Amino acid sequence: MGQLAPLAQLAPPPLPVRGQLTRKHKAAVIVRLLLNHGLDVPLKELPDEMQAELTMLLGHMRHIDRGTLSNVVEEFIEELEALGLTFPKGIAGALAALDGKISPHTAARLRKEAGVRQTGDPWERVKALDLKKLLPIAENESVEIAAVMLSKLDTSKAAKLLAMLPGARARRITYAVSLTSAITPEALDRIGLSLAAQLDAQPISVFDKDPVERVGAILNYSTAATRDDVLEGLDETDSDFAEKVRKAIFTYVNIPQRIAPRDIPKIVRQLDPAVLVTALAASVDPEQQKTAEYILGNMSARLADSLKEEVTDKGKVKLKDGEEAMNTVINEIRALEAAGELLLLAGDEEEEEG
User: How many domains does the chain have?
Assistant: First the structure.
């Protein structure tokens, strides 16, 4: 009998006589009514104790007459109509409501000062991270933890992450995925909370992009002479950083290495013909000429012949006008990439066939 005591404590009070339902019984009536009509009631957002109490109430209640149901619904509607505004409960709720509205630095400071961790499902936060932030976890955490994380990611994202890992590490993690079926929900939640806590502990960068991307973006719009001079200096100071910057740079002369042949017609359709003609006419040095030949060689022969005639008619182009036209071509490519219309190649890989 002693083992039944905890269950007895969970049992709700007996159902009152007709017309004397408590607020909790009325809430159970409304929930039951909404569920009967197929509405999605997010009960899992309630505290565990409240979910358990509601479940017990629903299990013990039997039926109410139509008049009582009507009275409960009318009272519920009156309370909704009288409700003017609600506010989030506590700092945690306020931070959740203001997520994305206040700066990450302010949010992190308030969370730290109040001792509040990120709310919500920790795995949703982990799954939303980009591959650059997931990669260190996959590289440095135990194989078992990495396998659990891989299993929680979307299939396409998991495949991309796996491809970024060394072969031996990727194989061990893949095998470990087969051992994750016995993990309990509690263990899964603890792992998610642990990874989320690591993310919370990481300092928030004041910049949107990492140093390589920032330097690469600056050099993209620098003159060729400035770009070469800076890269030469970086080679002497930090050759690894210089190599990463070179891979991040994308200029007019990089088009043959970074743009797939099939994407050239898509780019050409988005460009003002006069801009493209100016860029092609300004392609005078050997590297620029290779780019011009690459562009012309991957469009219809008729359009290529027409552009060649216009380039010949245009003649010599001022250096400034040519650079502006080439930058416009690059800007259009970047816009298509941002819109997901094309993907820049790595630069040191050939496009796969098929």
Answer: 3
